[in-house]
Design brief:
Blueprint (H helix, E strand, L loop, with lengths): L4 H8 L4 E5 L2 H11 L7 E5 L4 H9 L3 E5 L10 H13 L4 E6 L9 H10 L2 E5 L4 H5 L7 E5 L12 E5 L2 H12 L6 H19 L10 H4 L12 H29 L7 E2 L10 E4 L2 H13 L11 H4 L10 H9 E4 L7 H18 L1
Parallel strand pairs: 2-3, 2-4, 4-5, 5-6
Antiparallel strand pairs: 1-7, 6-7, 8-9, 9-10
């Protein structure tokens, strides 16, 4: 068995080669630039992706276009993505499409891949939460991106990888990675400041001003993997099968506990091979009161990023997707870490019950 963490990641995620970076966004940007995407290229990403994904695509110089997502599940639907590739191709555009497995759901992108291949696009699998691990999904694209940043399913604290079967591509990526500074404490502090700045703008109803923070994020996009963290990455990778099994058990506990609240609360019923959090849909009028009640009582409850059109209105003005906005107003994320045993989940449900009775 190899002790090289890059080879371990490659073997675990269906590739012959893996190149490690300090952040997943660094891996993405390096891949975009190595593939030669440029100012006349398009990079197609989900309309509700995180701002850092948008920043990585934008920093490559390509035009970022947004794919619609389902207002019921929050994920990009295969047929809609294929149709958008075909529409852009008729306009004379080409580039790369990110086949993104949001929330750890293992999604089917057969039609999108077929359209990309037929029309000269590059397909990249964006598998930040490691949905391909448990399913041992074959690598069908030029590369697969996996994150091992804090809060991800494969949580080594920081980092990301490009996994590929293309030896020449891997060699070029390694050269590029070698020029990046190693991720350090200063980078973490800068990232924290940027996150808090953006959160404050959203809370103040000034989300459109987030667009101006892209310049600040440029300094956050290129970092190399810290070799001092290799041992930790190896350890969490070895523990990943057990971690996934534990999270599936807690996902089942939550799902069972929420059945009495249907249809007001509905867990998204897709194949979540790598449960990041339990993804639950509710009515927009119910979502914020529920989140506030849970947080006030010491329970974790998250919301989704708003549609990228909210934060980057000028750069995304060709792609208004109201469904992404509706999803962002409707989703609750519930935690699946070890603190949420049956008793704690039951206690959280007791907090939610009176809120739902009052609002539904």
């Amino acid at each position: 068995m190899t002790t090289d963490p890059a080879l371990q990641i490659a073997n675990a995620f269906g590739g012959d080669h893996a190149v490690l970076f300090g952040r997943a966004r660094s891996a993405l940007l390096a891949l975009f630039e190595t593939l030669g995407l440029h100012g006349r290229s398009v990079i197609l990403i989900p309309s509700n992706a995180c701002p850092s994904l948008f920043a990585s695509a934008w920093a490559s110089g390509a035009q970022v276009r947004l794919a619609p997502v389902s207002p019921e599940t929050g994920v990009t639907e295969d047929a809609a993505l294929a149709a958008q590739i075909e529409t852009l191709s008729r306009q004379g555009r080409t580039g790369a499409v990110l086949l993104t497995h949001l929330y750890g759901f293992r999604l089917d992108f057969t039609q999108a891949r077929q359209a990309a291949r037929a029309l000269g696009w590059t397909s990249i699998e964006n598998d930040a939460n490691a949905s391909s691990f448990a399913s041992q999904a074959p690598l069908e694209d030029v590369a697969r991106i996996v994150s091992f940043g804090a809060g991800k399913v494969l949580d080594a604290g920081a980092g990301g990888a490009v996994i590929t079967q293309d030896a020449a591509l891997a060699a070029e990526l390694k050269k590029r990675a070698a020029t990046y500074p190693v991720l350090d404490a200063q980078a973490d502090q800068d990232e924290e400041r940027l996150m808090l700045q953006r959160r404050a703008l959203r809370n103040q109803g000034r989300a459109a001003e987030i667009e101006h923070t892209l310049v600040s994020e440029l300094s956050q996009l290129r970092f190399g993997f810290d070799p001092n963290t290799a041992e930790k990455l190896t350890a969490v990778l070895a523990h990943l099968p057990a971690r996934l099994a534990e999270r599936q058990e807690r996902r089942a506990l939550w799902t069972q506990a929420l059945r009495g609240f249907a249809p007001a609360l509905t867990p998204v019923a897709l194949d979540q091979t790598a449960p990041w959090r339990l993804i639950v849909k509710t009515a927009p009028t119910v979502r914020d009161p529920l989140v506030e009640a849970l947080r006030a009582n010491g329970f974790d409850a998250g919301t989704n990023y708003p549609a990228l059109t909210q934060s980057f209105p000028e750069l995304t003005d060709q792609d208004a997707h109201p469904d992404a906005n509706l999803w962002a107003q409707s989703v609750i994320n519930l935690w699946l870490d070890a603190r949420y045993d049956s008793a704690r989940i039951t206690a959280a449900c007791a907090v939610m019950e009176p809120v739902l009775e009052a609002l539904t």
